[in-house]
Amino acid sequence: MRKINLFDTTLRDGEQSAGVNLNAKEKLQIALQLERLGVDIMEAGFPASSKGDFSAVQEIARTIKNCSVTGLARSVKTDIDAAWEALKDGANPRLHVFLATSPIHMQYKLKQTPDQVIETAVESVKYASKFFPLIQWSAEDACRSELPFLAKIVERVIAAGANVINIPDTVGYINPKEYGEIFQYLKSNVKGIENVILSAHCHDDLGMATANSLAAIENGAGQIEGTINGIGERAGNASLEEIGVALHIRSDYFGAKTNMKLDEIKKTSDLVSKLTGMMIPPNKAVVGKNAFAHESGIHQDGVLKEKTTYEIISPELVGVGSNAMVLGKHSGRHAFKSKVAELGFNVTEEETHKIFKTFKTLSERKKEFTDEDIAALVIEEKVEK
Ligand code: KIV
Ligand code: ZN
Q1: 270 annotated as belonging to a binding site for a ligand
Q2: Where is each Pyruvate carboxyltransferase domain found (predicted)?
Q3: Is 105 annotated as belonging to a binding site?
Q4: Measured on CA atoms in the order 340, 346, 351, 352, is the torsion positive or negative?
């Protein structure tokens, strides 16, 4: 099976979520949990962006031993210097340097011609290779770039010393088929591409970040970037936990594996949610509160007979205690009986029939029933008798 490197950017792109601001202590706490989760690379921040981020990246680089710590830099010497200062004491330092390659970004943001952009990119990689043993180069807005230009600049930065080439879908614009074709195009048109690792970095503006990341793997990417819970700029980044679990569950299809310790997912997700203050939507894949909850009678009956009828991921796999049978208006007698037994009540068929009828009537008005609600219904029936 092919090994896919997981590059976590919760502490950099994730922290760029509107309203999120992590202090150094909180960043370190998340970094230590990411190390336990088994990511291969963590992007700890953007050292040139502020004194606080510089110190946080430095402390993380000095503490984390089991994965490579990286920091972001624009294609300017001062950013690269700051990144080196922050990362140099780390176990396995690497630089993440980027420059935009799309006509829109080159014209309006950089105000540079394509030739000037190539020169800036090459100079930055050459400069960085004086210090860094590993350099990742990212073509910002790659997915809206012209492919021949993208191929040309990628070839030049590889020749200048880049080891990892990242193809970000910066604005979440691409779809899986097109994204795969970009990887194929680069593999066929760039000299030296076989000597580097290709990386995918997807944003979720059109809700396709996970699908696009998986398409990149199918087309030769050896590294996937993302964040825990999919936090990040605007609609966020690809959710790293979704990708780790998808590769595991569908290893038959993808033939690829990661080092992610799947049973650390829930803990990591909860920590990131708590420290960033970003709530996890209940229906979020893998980590949402409802990801393992069954409400309808047909589903509950199926799961009680055999879990795999409606559960493709077992909750234990990702560190969630167990599934949940939520009693509500769609629930059936089988789940109801099972809940009453689980609460320790001994009830006859006749009693069950009556209590279930009351429950069904109430469920027209009440959305969800707690264990206490169910216990109260049973006790009421027993007392009335
Ligand atoms: O989305 C993006 O293009 C980025 C780059 C800095 C890699 O986050
Ligand atoms: Zn990004």
Answers
A1: no
A2: 4-266
A3: no
A4: positive
